[in-house]
Amino acid sequence: MANVVIVGTQWGDEGKGKVVDLLTERSDLVIRFQGGNNAGHTLVVGDRKVILHLIPSGILHKEKLCVIGSGVVIDPEILLDEISALKTKGYDVSPESFAISDRAHVIMPYHKMIDHARDTTQRIGTTGRGIGPAYEDKARRTGIRMIDLINEDMLGRKIEAIFDEKQEYLTTILKVKGLNKEDLINKFKDMGAQLKPYVKDTSVILNEASKKGKNLLFEGAQGGNLDMDYGTYPYVTSSNTVAGQACVGTGIGPTMIDTVLGICKAYTTRVGEGPFPTELEDEIGERLRAFGGEYGSTTGRPRRCGWLDLVALKHSIRISSISYLAITKLDVLSGLDTIKVATAYKSNGSIIENMPADLCMHPDLGLVFDELPGWEENISDIREYDKLPENCKAYISYIEKKLGVDAAIVSVGPKREETIILKDLF
Ligand code: IMP
Q: How many whole angstroms separate alpha carbon 371 and alpha carbon 296?
């Protein structure tokens, strides 16, 4: 029996979805604990591509319970669309296979409108899904929770209480068109009724399942460097993306976590604004984007691409106490003569080895690089570690040694089978 947390170690889009999908085979429950539909997991099952934004990817497997924990913010419209799309494809999304925490907060239309309007002035490059404004209302204690959404009276009262203020803010401050209160209440009552069968006290479910010896897999979204406290603030998402949030965002305690698996792409990408020290704005960056299909699965935006950044990785490993790495998209590096890796930053003549809290304030930031030899061969058909090209193995060993963490999984392509497992985590 083991409970495993999966987190991204960079700025998101590390390939968590594929690894979660793989490990789901060995888990009984798959749980999301933060973020919302700003995430997007692309899974390739056979010849079919499935993109999920909210429901844990475990839903593609039979007889697993997928849970959305209290730390997630939920757009009910998107969730209902996702449920119906999965059902159309023949997947089981019933209250036996899917549960939503009664304490999770709801993303309301005004959250999305505020997110859009604000991002034109305070340019973060958000996904525009209303994530930040929904978490703001949660912290401000004016949020609407799933338990309220499924209770018609409570929902009406909660919307009544906040509506005028939101309307005023939208129309007077942001100067956008306001909302119709009755339409809003009716629409959300209807969606609440549809989602009601799934809404439960999921903390109880998870703790009981664990006591019975079930394997729990916690599926993180975004990455360590987008964490609200530890990321490149203010260019971060509005939730905690670190492994500790798996406890807070689901209602389990820290002693229940056995292993933290950090997903690390073999190079770095970032979408949206914010510092990205190893960014490549040249033909190598374009090559990584083209070969790696580096376009956001939520917004379709081209991702910024660059070399591996050990400063950012060490930071993530420390804040999430990562036990093992899954190194993904190694195949994308095939064909490069040499591969660079940033080992430290430089600023004002000093060497910076730990991620500074004020990274945004170092416009002159320099980099200290190691340069490793690349490999020519296409590695996507290789299933045994020993058969990888020598320089590819040397790159993996270099990362392991520099970070002091072993790789448990190496991914050499998007498909489930394009994977080399080095360590059994369950
Ligand atoms: P928000 O989460 O929509 O508020 O966006 C805040 C920042 O996090 C922006 O830079 C987004 O591009 C980034 N972000 C949010 N979700 C993801 C993700 O799933 N992958 C990568 N970046 C993300």
A: 28
